[in-house]
From TrEMBL:
Residues 4-86 form the Elongation factor G-binding protein N-terminal domain. InterPro entries: EF-G-binding_C, EF-G-binding_N, EF-G_N_sf. Residues 100-199 form the Elongation factor G-binding protein C-terminal treble-clef zinc-finger domain. It comes from Cytobacillus kochii. It comes from the Bacteria. This is Elongation factor G-binding protein.
Amino acid sequence: MIAFMTNEQYNLVKKQVNKIINAKASVNDPTILKTVKTLAWEAVQQSLPDMAEEEASLLGQMQLVDDRLAADKFFYELKRYVIPFPALSETKLRKLFPKVKKLKFPLIDAEDYQTMTYLSWDEKGSQYRMIVAPYEQSYIGLRGTFQPSEQKGLCHICHRFTDIGMFIVETKGEVVGTFTKRGNTVCKDMKDCNHHVETLLHLSKFIRHIKGK
């Protein structure tokens, strides 16, 4: 079986399995447990509507997971079926950031690509944060300032209430000599954010907002 699910789909499966485990630990009513399992499986089916029979059989085992040890084993086995984020070449990255003269490339462990919906890194010695994300059947590069917040808030990529900061992109305005700033809050910890993205919907909305569309 080849890789068939994205990182965000993998994250969603993990969340649903955790719901089952938590229900088993706190509920004794078999009817309620059955309902939790049914809803969890339906959520996975909605996320992966085109599963092949073999893929559905593999994912269906989530309903048999009954404790944390079993869940960790299930996640470990499932992870190898995740389609990794493409390891973009320096040439490709330069094309995504054509206005950045001295682009500093990130050091990414090969294993991290397996749990990545988008690529992001902070430029050392500056306030700039880089984001490379899937957008409209391709990839887009965003470079903006990042200002950490002392308060928790909503990340507009993974849609969690967590430690965030403001990401702002400045673009040329319609009038010569003017500029437009657009931004939104995102996770401080980009790696952790990638572990909680469950859909591309919020990421796409975030990018459209930044681009003013």
